[in-house]
Amino acid sequence: MEDARLRRPRIGREDAPAQSVARRLFLHAAPAWIRAPVLASGMQDADLNLLTALNALLSEGNVAKAAERMGLSESAMSRTLARLREATGDQLLVRAGRGMVPTPHALALRDRVRDLVQESHAVLQPADASLDPRTLQRLFTIRANDGFIEAFAHVLVARVAKEAPGVRLRFAPKPDKDVRPLREGLIDLDVGVLGDSAGPEVRVQALYRDRFIAAVREGHPLLAEAGITPERYAACDHVVMSRHGRKEGPADVALAAMGLARNVAVTVPSFGAALSIAAATDLVALVPASYFERLRAQSTLRSFPLPIHTEQITISQMWHPRMDRDPAHRWLRGMVLELCRGLAEGET
Q1: What is the pLDDT at residue 122?
Q2: How many angstroms separate the CA atoms of 170 and 168, rounded?
Q3: Sign of the C-alpha dihedral, residues 150, 251, 282, 266?
Q4: Does CATH place domain 13-124 in 1.10.10.10?
Q5: Angle, to 10 degrees, between the axis of helix 49-60 and the axis of helix 63-70?
Q6: What pLDDT, on a 0 to 100 scale, did the predictor assign at position 202?
Protein backbone atom coordinates (compact mmCIF):
# COMPACT_ATOMS: atom_id res chain seq x y z
CA MET A 1 0.00 0.00 0.00
CA GLU A 2 1.22 3.50 -0.76
CA ASP A 3 2.60 5.76 1.96
CA ALA A 4 -0.32 6.56 4.23
CA ARG A 5 1.12 9.70 5.79
CA LEU A 6 -1.28 12.58 5.87
CA ARG A 7 -0.03 16.09 5.32
CA ARG A 8 -1.71 18.63 7.54
CA PRO A 9 -3.28 21.44 5.49
CA ARG A 10 -2.02 24.94 6.04
CA ILE A 11 -4.31 27.22 7.97
CA GLY A 12 -5.82 29.85 5.70
CA ARG A 13 -7.12 33.26 6.68
CA GLU A 14 -10.68 32.02 6.73
CA ASP A 15 -9.70 29.53 9.46
CA ALA A 16 -7.98 32.12 11.67
CA PRO A 17 -11.01 32.93 13.89
CA ALA A 18 -11.58 29.24 14.62
CA GLN A 19 -7.89 28.76 15.39
CA SER A 20 -7.96 31.76 17.74
CA VAL A 21 -10.93 30.29 19.58
CA ALA A 22 -9.16 26.94 19.72
CA ARG A 23 -6.06 28.52 21.23
CA ARG A 24 -8.09 30.34 23.88
CA LEU A 25 -10.04 27.20 24.78
CA PHE A 26 -6.84 25.20 24.96
CA LEU A 27 -5.07 27.71 27.21
CA HIS A 28 -8.14 28.08 29.42
CA ALA A 29 -8.46 24.30 29.86
CA ALA A 30 -4.75 23.56 30.17
CA PRO A 31 -3.27 23.00 33.63
CA ALA A 32 -0.60 25.37 34.94
CA TRP A 33 2.28 23.09 33.99
CA ILE A 34 1.28 23.51 30.32
CA ARG A 35 -0.13 27.04 30.39
CA ALA A 36 2.85 28.72 32.08
CA PRO A 37 5.59 27.64 29.64
CA VAL A 38 3.31 28.27 26.66
CA LEU A 39 2.63 31.85 27.74
CA ALA A 40 6.26 32.42 28.69
CA SER A 41 7.58 31.19 25.35
CA GLY A 42 5.12 33.07 23.17
CA MET A 43 3.70 29.82 21.80
CA GLN A 44 0.16 31.01 22.48
CA ASP A 45 0.21 32.16 18.85
CA ALA A 46 0.74 28.55 17.68
CA ASP A 47 -2.12 26.18 16.97
CA LEU A 48 -2.79 22.88 18.71
CA ASN A 49 -0.38 21.02 16.42
CA LEU A 50 2.49 21.66 18.85
CA LEU A 51 0.70 19.88 21.68
CA THR A 52 -0.32 17.14 19.25
CA ALA A 53 3.34 16.77 18.28
CA LEU A 54 4.29 16.42 21.94
CA ASN A 55 1.66 13.72 22.30
CA ALA A 56 3.03 11.88 19.26
CA LEU A 57 6.62 12.08 20.54
CA LEU A 58 5.72 10.81 24.00
CA SER A 59 3.49 8.03 22.62
CA GLU A 60 5.97 6.81 20.01
CA GLY A 61 9.21 7.52 21.88
CA ASN A 62 10.86 7.99 18.51
CA VAL A 63 11.30 11.10 16.36
CA ALA A 64 10.99 9.24 13.04
CA LYS A 65 7.81 7.41 14.04
CA ALA A 66 6.29 10.57 15.51
CA ALA A 67 7.08 12.40 12.27
CA GLU A 68 5.36 9.69 10.23
CA ARG A 69 2.35 9.81 12.51
CA MET A 70 2.12 13.60 12.13
CA GLY A 71 2.81 13.61 8.39
CA LEU A 72 6.01 15.64 8.85
CA SER A 73 9.61 15.21 7.80
CA GLU A 74 12.01 13.89 10.42
CA SER A 75 13.94 17.19 10.42
CA ALA A 76 10.72 19.15 11.03
CA MET A 77 9.85 16.91 13.95
CA SER A 78 13.37 17.35 15.35
CA ARG A 79 12.89 21.13 15.25
CA THR A 80 9.54 20.73 17.00
CA LEU A 81 11.20 18.61 19.70
CA ALA A 82 13.76 21.38 20.21
CA ARG A 83 10.94 23.92 20.72
CA LEU A 84 9.21 21.59 23.18
CA ARG A 85 12.44 21.10 25.12
CA GLU A 86 12.84 24.86 25.39
CA ALA A 87 9.24 25.31 26.49
CA THR A 88 9.22 22.57 29.12
CA GLY A 89 12.80 22.98 30.34
CA ASP A 90 13.33 19.23 29.96
CA GLN A 91 15.01 17.02 27.36
CA LEU A 92 11.85 14.85 27.12
CA LEU A 93 13.60 12.19 24.99
CA VAL A 94 17.28 11.27 25.37
CA ARG A 95 19.58 8.94 23.46
CA ALA A 96 20.01 5.37 24.76
CA GLY A 97 22.06 3.26 22.37
CA ARG A 98 20.42 3.42 18.96
CA GLY A 99 17.07 4.47 20.34
CA MET A 100 15.59 7.12 22.61
CA VAL A 101 14.03 6.85 26.05
CA PRO A 102 11.71 9.30 27.85
CA THR A 103 12.94 11.26 30.81
CA PRO A 104 11.12 10.91 34.15
CA HIS A 105 9.43 14.25 33.45
CA ALA A 106 8.24 12.99 30.04
CA LEU A 107 6.82 9.85 31.63
CA ALA A 108 4.93 12.00 34.12
CA LEU A 109 3.53 14.12 31.29
CA ARG A 110 2.58 11.38 28.84
CA ASP A 111 -0.89 10.45 30.06
CA ARG A 112 -1.79 14.05 30.90
CA VAL A 113 -0.75 15.32 27.47
CA ARG A 114 -2.69 12.54 25.75
CA ASP A 115 -5.83 13.34 27.74
CA LEU A 116 -5.48 17.06 27.06
CA VAL A 117 -5.12 16.54 23.30
CA GLN A 118 -8.15 14.26 23.22
CA GLU A 119 -10.21 16.66 25.33
CA SER A 120 -9.33 19.68 23.18
CA HIS A 121 -10.20 17.83 19.98
CA ALA A 122 -13.48 16.68 21.48
CA VAL A 123 -14.41 20.22 22.58
CA LEU A 124 -13.77 21.61 19.10
CA GLN A 125 -15.63 18.79 17.28
CA PRO A 126 -19.27 19.62 16.47
CA ALA A 127 -21.43 16.90 17.99
CA ASP A 128 -23.68 16.45 14.98
CA ALA A 129 -21.58 17.84 12.17
CA SER A 130 -22.55 16.76 8.69
CA LEU A 131 -19.90 14.95 6.70
CA ASP A 132 -19.10 14.90 3.02
CA PRO A 133 -16.75 11.92 2.49
CA ARG A 134 -15.63 13.35 -0.84
CA THR A 135 -13.86 16.21 0.94
CA LEU A 136 -12.61 14.22 3.95
CA GLN A 137 -8.84 14.28 4.51
CA ARG A 138 -7.86 11.76 7.18
CA LEU A 139 -5.70 8.78 8.05
CA PHE A 140 -7.42 5.86 9.76
CA THR A 141 -5.45 3.07 11.42
CA ILE A 142 -7.22 -0.29 11.68
CA ARG A 143 -5.68 -3.10 13.71
CA ALA A 144 -6.62 -6.59 12.54
CA ASN A 145 -5.12 -10.02 11.97
CA ASP A 146 -4.23 -11.36 8.53
CA GLY A 147 -7.46 -13.38 8.34
CA PHE A 148 -9.61 -10.25 8.36
CA ILE A 149 -7.26 -8.32 6.08
CA GLU A 150 -7.18 -11.07 3.46
CA ALA A 151 -10.95 -11.50 3.50
CA PHE A 152 -12.20 -7.91 3.71
CA ALA A 153 -9.47 -5.28 3.31
CA HIS A 154 -9.44 -5.21 -0.50
CA VAL A 155 -13.18 -4.49 -0.60
CA LEU A 156 -12.90 -1.78 2.06
CA VAL A 157 -9.96 -0.12 0.28
CA ALA A 158 -11.85 -0.06 -3.04
CA ARG A 159 -14.97 1.39 -1.42
CA VAL A 160 -13.03 4.09 0.44
CA ALA A 161 -11.12 5.05 -2.73
CA LYS A 162 -14.41 5.51 -4.54
CA GLU A 163 -16.33 7.42 -1.87
CA ALA A 164 -13.57 9.29 -0.02
CA PRO A 165 -10.44 9.68 -2.17
CA GLY A 166 -8.77 11.85 0.48
CA VAL A 167 -8.90 9.11 3.11
CA ARG A 168 -5.89 6.88 3.72
CA LEU A 169 -6.02 3.52 5.47
CA ARG A 170 -3.23 1.91 7.44
CA PHE A 171 -3.65 -1.69 8.58
CA ALA A 172 -1.64 -2.43 11.70
CA PRO A 173 -0.71 -5.93 12.92
CA LYS A 174 -2.56 -7.40 15.88
CA PRO A 175 0.00 -9.01 18.18
CA ASP A 176 -2.45 -9.19 21.10
CA LYS A 177 -5.83 -7.95 22.39
CA ASP A 178 -4.47 -5.14 24.55
CA VAL A 179 -6.78 -2.09 24.43
CA ARG A 180 -3.99 0.37 25.22
CA PRO A 181 -3.55 1.42 21.53
CA LEU A 182 -7.25 2.35 21.43
CA ARG A 183 -7.02 4.23 24.71
CA GLU A 184 -3.94 6.16 23.59
CA GLY A 185 -5.27 6.95 20.12
CA LEU A 186 -2.61 4.90 18.32
CA ILE A 187 -5.33 3.07 16.36
CA ASP A 188 -8.85 4.08 15.34
CA LEU A 189 -10.50 0.67 15.09
CA ASP A 190 -9.61 -2.74 16.49
CA VAL A 191 -11.15 -5.66 14.60
CA GLY A 192 -11.22 -9.19 15.98
CA VAL A 193 -12.53 -11.37 18.79
CA LEU A 194 -13.27 -9.45 21.98
CA GLY A 195 -10.62 -10.10 24.62
CA ASP A 196 -11.00 -10.36 28.38
CA SER A 197 -8.99 -7.17 28.88
CA ALA A 198 -11.32 -4.93 26.86
CA GLY A 199 -13.17 -3.51 29.86
CA PRO A 200 -16.26 -1.27 29.91
CA GLU A 201 -14.43 1.70 28.38
CA VAL A 202 -14.34 0.08 24.91
CA ARG A 203 -17.29 0.21 22.52
CA VAL A 204 -18.00 -3.09 20.76
CA GLN A 205 -20.11 -3.82 17.67
CA ALA A 206 -20.48 -7.31 16.21
CA LEU A 207 -19.62 -7.52 12.50
CA TYR A 208 -20.18 -11.18 11.61
CA ARG A 209 -19.90 -14.71 12.93
CA ASP A 210 -17.24 -17.09 11.67
CA ARG A 211 -16.25 -20.70 12.15
CA PHE A 212 -13.07 -22.72 11.87
CA ILE A 213 -12.59 -25.29 9.11
CA ALA A 214 -9.80 -27.66 8.15
CA ALA A 215 -7.71 -27.28 4.99
CA VAL A 216 -5.43 -29.81 3.30
CA ARG A 217 -3.61 -30.14 0.00
CA GLU A 218 -5.19 -31.74 -3.04
CA GLY A 219 -4.67 -35.50 -2.88
CA HIS A 220 -4.29 -35.58 0.90
CA PRO A 221 -4.79 -39.09 2.41
CA LEU A 222 -7.72 -37.79 4.47
CA LEU A 223 -9.63 -37.16 1.23
CA ALA A 224 -9.06 -40.67 -0.11
CA GLU A 225 -11.94 -42.14 1.91
CA ALA A 226 -15.46 -40.85 2.36
CA GLY A 227 -16.30 -39.57 5.81
CA ILE A 228 -13.68 -37.82 7.91
CA THR A 229 -14.12 -39.03 11.46
CA PRO A 230 -12.71 -37.42 14.60
CA GLU A 231 -10.32 -40.35 14.92
CA ARG A 232 -8.90 -39.92 11.40
CA TYR A 233 -8.68 -36.17 11.87
CA ALA A 234 -6.82 -36.50 15.20
CA ALA A 235 -4.41 -39.08 13.74
CA CYS A 236 -2.96 -36.48 11.32
CA ASP A 237 -0.21 -34.00 12.06
CA HIS A 238 -1.42 -30.41 12.26
CA VAL A 239 -0.25 -26.84 11.67
CA VAL A 240 -1.93 -24.07 13.67
CA MET A 241 -1.75 -20.29 13.86
CA SER A 242 -0.94 -18.72 17.19
CA ARG A 243 0.42 -15.25 17.91
CA HIS A 244 1.99 -16.49 21.14
CA GLY A 245 3.05 -19.99 20.11
CA ARG A 246 0.24 -21.79 21.92
CA LYS A 247 -0.59 -25.23 20.53
CA GLU A 248 -3.94 -25.87 22.19
CA GLY A 249 -7.28 -24.36 21.28
CA PRO A 250 -11.03 -25.13 21.06
CA ALA A 251 -10.39 -28.06 18.69
CA ASP A 252 -8.14 -29.71 21.28
CA VAL A 253 -10.77 -29.23 23.98
CA ALA A 254 -13.40 -30.90 21.78
CA LEU A 255 -11.06 -33.79 20.95
CA ALA A 256 -10.11 -34.27 24.61
CA ALA A 257 -13.81 -34.63 25.49
CA MET A 258 -13.85 -37.61 23.12
CA GLY A 259 -10.67 -39.11 24.55
CA LEU A 260 -8.63 -38.00 21.55
CA ALA A 261 -5.64 -35.71 21.01
CA ARG A 262 -4.00 -34.30 17.90
CA ASN A 263 -0.31 -33.70 17.28
CA VAL A 264 0.42 -30.06 16.53
CA ALA A 265 3.67 -30.41 14.61
CA VAL A 266 4.05 -26.76 13.58
CA THR A 267 2.92 -23.42 15.04
CA VAL A 268 3.06 -20.30 12.87
CA PRO A 269 2.13 -16.61 13.42
CA SER A 270 -0.32 -16.25 10.50
CA PHE A 271 -3.09 -18.14 8.69
CA GLY A 272 -1.34 -17.56 5.37
CA ALA A 273 1.76 -19.35 6.62
CA ALA A 274 -0.37 -22.24 7.90
CA LEU A 275 -2.00 -22.70 4.50
CA SER A 276 1.33 -22.48 2.67
CA ILE A 277 2.67 -25.32 4.80
CA ALA A 278 -0.52 -27.35 4.38
CA ALA A 279 -0.35 -26.92 0.58
CA ALA A 280 3.14 -28.46 0.46
CA THR A 281 2.85 -31.21 3.12
CA ASP A 282 0.38 -33.63 4.68
CA LEU A 283 -0.23 -31.33 7.64
CA VAL A 284 -3.81 -30.22 8.33
CA ALA A 285 -4.40 -26.49 8.80
CA LEU A 286 -7.10 -24.89 10.93
CA VAL A 287 -8.34 -21.55 9.51
CA PRO A 288 -11.43 -19.31 9.60
CA ALA A 289 -13.97 -20.12 6.90
CA SER A 290 -14.20 -16.46 5.83
CA TYR A 291 -10.46 -16.41 5.21
CA PHE A 292 -10.32 -19.60 3.16
CA GLU A 293 -13.41 -18.83 1.07
CA ARG A 294 -11.81 -15.67 -0.28
CA LEU A 295 -8.35 -17.13 -0.74
CA ARG A 296 -6.90 -16.54 -4.18
CA ALA A 297 -5.04 -19.89 -4.34
CA GLN A 298 -7.78 -22.35 -3.46
CA SER A 299 -6.91 -24.56 -6.45
CA THR A 300 -4.07 -26.19 -4.49
CA LEU A 301 -6.12 -26.71 -1.30
CA ARG A 302 -9.31 -28.39 -0.20
CA SER A 303 -11.37 -27.57 2.87
CA PHE A 304 -13.83 -29.58 4.92
CA PRO A 305 -15.93 -29.00 8.06
CA LEU A 306 -14.33 -30.07 11.31
CA PRO A 307 -15.57 -33.52 12.39
CA ILE A 308 -15.91 -32.14 15.94
CA HIS A 309 -18.06 -29.41 17.45
CA THR A 310 -16.46 -26.03 18.12
CA GLU A 311 -18.30 -22.82 18.91
CA GLN A 312 -18.59 -20.10 16.30
CA ILE A 313 -16.57 -16.97 16.90
CA THR A 314 -17.88 -13.40 16.75
CA ILE A 315 -15.74 -10.85 14.94
CA SER A 316 -16.32 -7.32 16.23
CA GLN A 317 -15.06 -3.82 15.69
CA MET A 318 -13.97 -1.93 18.79
CA TRP A 319 -13.25 1.74 19.42
CA HIS A 320 -12.78 4.21 22.25
CA PRO A 321 -15.88 6.12 23.48
CA ARG A 322 -14.34 9.49 22.67
CA MET A 323 -14.88 8.63 18.97
CA ASP A 324 -18.59 7.85 19.40
CA ARG A 325 -19.87 11.06 17.84
CA ASP A 326 -16.97 11.89 15.55
CA PRO A 327 -18.65 12.11 12.10
CA ALA A 328 -15.70 10.69 10.15
CA HIS A 329 -15.23 7.82 12.57
CA ARG A 330 -18.95 7.03 12.47
CA TRP A 331 -18.76 6.98 8.67
CA LEU A 332 -15.84 4.52 8.78
CA ARG A 333 -17.57 2.25 11.30
CA GLY A 334 -20.74 2.21 9.23
CA MET A 335 -18.83 1.26 6.10
CA VAL A 336 -16.91 -1.54 7.83
CA LEU A 337 -20.16 -2.90 9.29
CA GLU A 338 -21.99 -2.79 5.95
CA LEU A 339 -19.20 -4.45 3.98
CA CYS A 340 -18.47 -7.17 6.54
CA ARG A 341 -22.07 -8.18 7.02
CA GLY A 342 -22.69 -8.09 3.26
CA LEU A 343 -19.70 -10.29 2.45
CA ALA A 344 -20.41 -12.64 5.34
CA GLU A 345 -23.92 -13.18 3.92
CA GLY A 346 -22.49 -13.93 0.48
CA GLU A 347 -23.15 -10.54 -1.08
CA THR A 348 -20.63 -8.71 -3.27
Answers
A1: 59
A2: 7
A3: positive
A4: yes
A5: 140
A6: 86
